[in-house]
Design goal:
It is a single chain. This protein is an alpha+beta fold. The protein has one domain. Strands 3-2-4-5-6-1-7-8 form an eight-stranded antiparallel beta sheet. The protein is globular, with a radius of gyration of 17 Å.
Length: about 210
C-alpha cells in the first residue's frame, strides 16, 4: 500500500530544486538529531521519464511536465539508502471540470472555514499547482520519515498547505502548514490510537538502531 502527501503552494513560483533539497536536508537532519541520531544525510533528485533519467540542476525552477510524451516524475532518494519517494507535479485545473476544484471545498471544510486559511487557499487556487509525494510499501524507515519532511518543507517554502487523502498521517493534524506539520511529525504523542502509535515507535526505534546514528 502506498501513501501520499500533497502540497498546495500559495506563493513562490520561482522556488528552485536546490532550495528545496538544501532546506529539506537541514530539516531531516534536525528531526534525526531530536531522535538522538547524528548521521549526515544527502538528498539526490532525478527526473525520470519513459525514455531516460537525469539528475536535476539546483538552479532550475521546481517544476516539470507530467504529460505526454514523456510522463515525467521526480525521484528523490538519500545517498547510500535503497528506495525513495516519487513526486508528481500538476495543475488542479487540468482535472475533469466536474472534479477539478472540489479539493478546495474539502480543505475549507476541514479547516473550519478559518479566514487565515481561506486567504491561503485563495492564493493557492490562483497559483494552480499541486505536488504529490508518494511512498510505496516496504520502504526503509528513513524514507518513511523523510518523504513527509520534504513535503512539509515544500509547503513551508511556498507558504502552502500539506494534506493527505489516503491516511499518510493522522487526519487530526491535517491539512496544515508545513511548520505545524513538522512540529508533530513522527511523534508517538500524535496518535491516541494504539496501533498507529506503536508503528511510529517501531519506526523510531529501528532508525535509532540503524546506521543512522
Amino acid at each position: 500500500m502506498a501513501t501520499t502527501f500533497e502540497v498546495l503552494p500559495a506563493t513562490r513560483k520561482d522556488l528552485t530544486f536546490g532550495e528545496l533539497l538544501d532546506q529539506s536536508q537541514k530539516n531531516i537532519s534536525l528531526h534525526l538529531h531530536e531522535l538522538g541520531i547524528t548521521h549526515e544525510i544527502q538528498l539526490r533528485a532525478e527526473i525520470i521519464t519513459n525514455k531516460n533519467r537525469r539528475e536535476v540542476l539546483p538552479d532550475k525552477v521546481f517544476k516539470w511536465s507530467v504529460g505526454p510524451p514523456d510522463y515525467a516524475y521526480l525521484w528523490i532518494s538519500l545517498n547510500g539508502v535503497p528506495g525513495g519517494t516519487d513526486v508528481y507535479c500538476d495543475t488542479i485545473s487540468s482535472r475533469l471540470p466536474e472534479h477539478k476544484w472540489h479539493i478546495f471545498d474539502e480543505l475549507r471544510e476541514a479547516l473550519n472555514f478559518n479566514p487565515v486559511y481561506e486567504r491561503l487557499l485563495g492564493s493557492a487556487k490562483k497559483l494552480d499547482r499541486r505536488w504529490r509525494f508518494r511512498r510505496s510499501m516496504g520502504q526503509p524507515e528513513i524514507i518513511n520519515l523523510s518523504y513527509g519532511i520534504i513535503a512539509a518543507t515544500l509547503a513551508e517554502l511556498t507558504d502552502g498547505l500539506i494534506y493527505s487523502c489516503d491516511g499518510a498521517w493522522n487526519d487530526q493534524f491535517l491539512p496544515t502548514t508545513g511548520a505545524a506539520f513538522r512540529a508533530h511529525y513522527f511523534s508517538p504523542d500524535s496518535y491516541a490510537e494504539q496501533h498507529s502509535k506503536k508503528w511510529v515507535e517501531t519506526v523510531i526505534a529501528s532508525l535509532q538502531e540503524s546506521v543512522f546514528k
